[in-house]
Design a protein that fits this description.
Length: 492
Amino acid sequence: MSARKICLAVDLGASGGRVVAGIYDGTRLALNELSRFPNEPIKATSGWRWNFDALFEHVKRGIALAVKEYGQAVVSLGVDAWGVDYGLLDDRGKLLGAPFQYRDRRTDGMEEVAFQRMPRDEIYQRTGIQFLFFNTLFQLLAESKLPDRLNEAGHLLFMPDLIHYFLTGVCVNEKSIASTSQLLDPYTQTWERGIIKAMGFPERIFGKLVDAGTMLGELQSEVAGETGAKKLRVIAPAGHDTASAVVGVPAEESEPGFLSSGTWSCFGRELNRPAISEESFRATFSNEGGVFGTTRFLKNIAGMWLLQECKRIWEAEGKSTSYAELVVQAEKSPPFAAWIDPDACDFQAPANMVHALNRFCNRTGQPAPTDLGAITRLILESLALKYRFVKESLARVTGRSVDRIYIVGGGSQNHLLNQFTADALDCTVVAGPVEAASIGNLIMQLHALGEIGPLREGRSLIRRSFETKIFEPQHTAAWDDAYARFQRILSA
């Protein structure tokens, strides 16, 4: 049996982050959450940005806590984070301002600018990535309106790569996070130089790409001194948090269907190669990079962001409530009263999400929900029905149906949404593990350390180590009827 290994997973999401210790005894993996912290954008004169300095301090505190608890048994660390956002370094390695937040409105109108320089369908054929207003491609076009920024830049690093850089001094981009940019060739996993040139981006900022599981190096002496960590090796996991979450899917079958449920819902299937076609283009699926040469063929859907924003508004109004309480109230609310399209433009970045939901219902001739339970049920039912719409599109585009969906991430704790999903999709739902992104991050570290082999071995370890919950479909006839009406809302 292998000697006990302690690895650290830093998992950064758009609303919060955590540092988790993975304790591997050669047979099973256990988790110990060392710290959890908020991640909130800050409003600057130039727009919404991330507080990168605060994030980096939280990471260093997490390392120090690990050393305090485990001493020098801590052998490695890896960072995963949300996609598309980045920092720019100058030639001396200095960060050129805090990274912009992806919902900042500076990208308004940038899609039209991009399509004037290269046709929309050609960009998709070259990258296989779904068009979202905040993709790195469009952020960089907005950046080019400030020529001094791109002219001064020497390197572009995505959020996990940026943390790795300040920990180690090593300047590379991990491929799964780079694939979210809409600037990567999904077949060769290299930069798409044709798009970069057509958009007028300086090619020098797109540097070395590495695979998940690459050993980057040890902590810089200054960071090691601050944290007390000696000879801690930094390993690039799947840098995109969804990619790490998909590694954390406890599937036995190859090419499993998955739903990474959090601020975003990422619904798709792991494939052995990209699937780029006219039909996948029309259905707006993405071909994002996975581990060991796999492709995450998926569609991004607005997820728990909708409820998170409603909860924020309610708390500002003095209506303090927990997610568990909201679910209880939703269970007591009448079913199928109204629906929304979670991906409507109305919900991209409204000042008040509750008002935006009401306006959508009024515009589509539906009764607007009034109490917290009814609004919560509206969101959860709409998400489940949108999942069904995407599941049908996925089967049509790939030519294969999905009979089992693995739900991982924070949303897998929501038993009501899990049951709604099983009912709406008429398929078995396997919920958990909750901390799939951290677990997937740790799996790739253990692989880099030579403790486990290919992906199937990692998933076998996950099944041995973590519990899941099964949800079987119920009341499918009622959901079939609801889906027919929901489709009319989508058409409207």
